[in-house]
Amino acid sequence: MRKINIAVDGYSSCGKSTLAKQIAEILGYLYIDSGAMYRAITLHGIKTGSIIGGKVDVEELKTQLTEVHVVLQYDPDSKRSYPILNGENVDKEIHSMEVANAVSKVSEIKEVREKLVNLQKKTAESKGVVMDGRDIGTVVIPSAELKLFMTADTNVRAERRYEELKNRGTKVGYLDILNNIKSRDERDSKRELSPLVQAEDAIILDNTHLTPEEQLTFAIGLINNLVSEQEA
Ligand code: DC
């Protein structure tokens, strides 16, 4: 079967990565979490002191970009990809609130976007990629055969995220999460470079009232239709 590329974009904490991972596993495709790459650069800034208390020293961070190596390394045992920052697995650290509070600012920096978008485009060249993010269908893989744009009620998203972080053992308040989601949505949608917008040919998936199983069934249905149309 001919491989396609699938772009999953949308608002923060909509379950993009859950869905993208499931699709990739079913199809045997490569899953790329582009947000993890922006988070890894943000973590580097926090570790080196160019980001303190959510404040980003943009010029300092830019000078550090040549020394930042971010890769997503696939682990066949867990069937997951882990973000590796300069040789270190930072999967847990990149999901801290400290990173969440600065990552939208970091993702507004032109040089950061250029570095990561180039990497992401290269990964998608060989097809068979499911990538989630904010600008995948519009900028990174505008030729993706399937583009999903995910959304859900903000309070529902905050509740889901709260449960997820609580289960991971991260101590964080519900209101902090809600405010973080709202401010990231606002910044991501209003930024000048590659803002979060729905690609014209994207299909909207509002999962406010859907279970993960229902949304997966919806997405797989779309993929099956697409593939059978292409083979007809
Ligand atoms: O998907 P996420 O919540 O882990 O993404 C973290 C941040 O990274 C998000 O608030 C905006 C930025 N981002 C981006 O600008 N472009 C992408 N393709 C993915 C994420």
Enumerate the spans where pLDDT stays under 50 for 5 or more consecutive residues: none
CATH topology: Rossmann fold
Assembly type of the chains comes to: single chain
By CATH, the superfamily comes out as P-loop containing nucleotide triphosphate hydrolases
- What's the total number of strands? 10
- Range of helix content: 40-55%
Average pLDDT number: 94
Q: Using the coordinates above, name the CATH class.
A: Alpha Beta
Main sheet characteristics: 5 strands, parallel
Structural class by sheet pairing and helices: alpha/beta
* Distinct small-molecule ligands in the complex: 2'-deoxycytidine-5'-monophosphate
Number of domains: 1
The total of helices stands at: 9
